[in-house]
Write a structure and sequence with these properties.
Elements: E1 12-13, E2 20-21, E3 28-35, H1 51-60, H2 65-72, E4 73-80, H3 82-95
Antiparallel strand pairs: 1-2, 3-4
The protein binds zinc ion (ZN).
Zinc ion binds at residues 14, 16-17, 19, 80-81, 83-84.
Length: 110
């Protein structure tokens, strides 16, 4: 029995360590979305007569449009080798834990 090798596309590189991932080898796609939350309360809204101060603050703000956009919504996608996937999983569990571990999607509470 001969083995078949399908060469589809180029080898990928792990986005963390740079290791080459040959076609057909295990790899992982990581999609992360960072979205600003909204709890229905608008804090720090300017009152009447404060618009001049607000405009001055906006003029001094040196953030680019992309930086401002990323504060509201940012989507990232990575391809990882199995080793880096395991490292990331360990980091995510620690990062979100507060002793409870990472919660499955749709179970986040306010
Ligand atoms: Zn890697």
């Amino acid at each position: 029995m001969s083995s078949r090798v399908l060469k589809i596309g180029k080898p990928r590189l792990c986005d963390h360590c740079g290791q080459e991932i040959e076609p057909g080898r295990a790899h992982y796609r990581v999609a992360v979305t960072l979205e600003a939350g909204f709890d229905g309360v608008l804090a720090d809204m300017p009152g009447e007569g404060d618009i001049g101060d607000t405009l001055k603050k906006l003029e001094k703000d040196k953030r680019t449009a992309k930086e401002l956009e990323n504060e509201i919504y940012q989507s990232l996608e990575l391809i990882l080798c199995p080793g880096c996937r395991n490292k990331l999983e360990g980091q995510l569990v620690k990062f979100g834990s507060r002793g409870e571990g990472v919660k499955p999607p749709g179970t986040l509470t306010q």
